[in-house]
Amino acid sequence: MQKIVTIGGGTGHFQVLRGLKNYECEITSIVNVSDDGGSSGKLQDEYGILPPGDARQCMVALADENEAKLLRDLFSFRLKDGHNLGNLIITALASISGSSAQAIKDAGKLLRIKGRVIPVSTDDVVLHGETEDGRFLRGQTEISYPKDKNTKIKNIFHVPEAYIYREAGDAIRNADKIVICPGELYGSILPNFIVKGMREALQESKATMIYICNLFTKEGSYGFKASDFVREIEKYAGVNIDYIIINTGKPSPDVLQKYLGENSTLVEDDLESDERVVRGNYVAEYPSMEKTLLRHVPEKIAREIISLN
Q1: pLDDT tens, residue by residue, 155-170
Q2: CA–CA separation, 107 and 99 (whole Å)
């Protein structure tokens, strides 16, 4: 049975896990702990726990969509005060056990998830960023959504330094495949790789490294092409990527126009001669309350991951 480790944070991670759980594989989802926005940030400030949002999303993705439907709905339910019920449950479990990592494990048992979800670190840290024009940004929210839309990130780091959670390091060393999921590059994906000990764990692993390229650019990555995303990930991870999965499907003109209205553009595939690239139409449009979103289809992207050697 393949041992697959996923690394990421946010919706892209969620979509990948929803697909992988339907295959005979051993899944370990490693999640970012730098999310300081919304409900997660408030609970971190008030209760001193790890931000629960990314872990909660991954657990919901790994729960059975039929047998655990009610629990999935409860963990995803958002209250009028902005808090997510699942985040509050994880906070309560952390108070009971005295450990955020244990709370995530206990929540996973409640949801009866396939696989496990673990934080990349258990240290209480704040993500910082340095811009190319010499400014410093504090917090994941400022880095992911800077006031200056043309901000270019030069470097990110944690204050204080974060150290890799032992179970995360062990999972990486023992993995057959490591999947870097799409998501906010500097706010959700790369923060996993600046944790002390992560680079060493990746270098000691014999796993096949797979990167699922982002679909769109956004703040911090405006103007990025596929090669730019790959370059930044390899720089921070300290290892080479073996396979790069790039989507060839296109959104409808109406959906594309909505993204363009936010200054987001489809990521250009400029890796024509790179033999590591695997291409295919992996996307579909998903209606939401705010706008129709282009997302990776869980079944399609998981099938590709499983098939790669």
Answers
A1: 999 999 999 999 999 9
A2: 12
